[in-house]
Amino acid sequence: MEKPQATDSSSNMFLTGTILLANMDYSGLTDYAVKALIGGAIWMCFKIAGDYFSERMKKK
To answer: Fewest beta carbons less than 10 Å away: which of 1, 31, 55, 58?
Structure first.
């Protein structure tokens, strides 16, 4: 008795992702992730400060 082959889109997506990740430069990806986290933290600080000062100015 033969097993049915999986031909759904999730198996195709998994195969494509595996091939792409196998050829990826992980040192560059790590540098990008660190820069993205630092940039996101800086953006969040400016956003919080802007909201704080905006509320303060509205109360005056």
So the answer is: 1
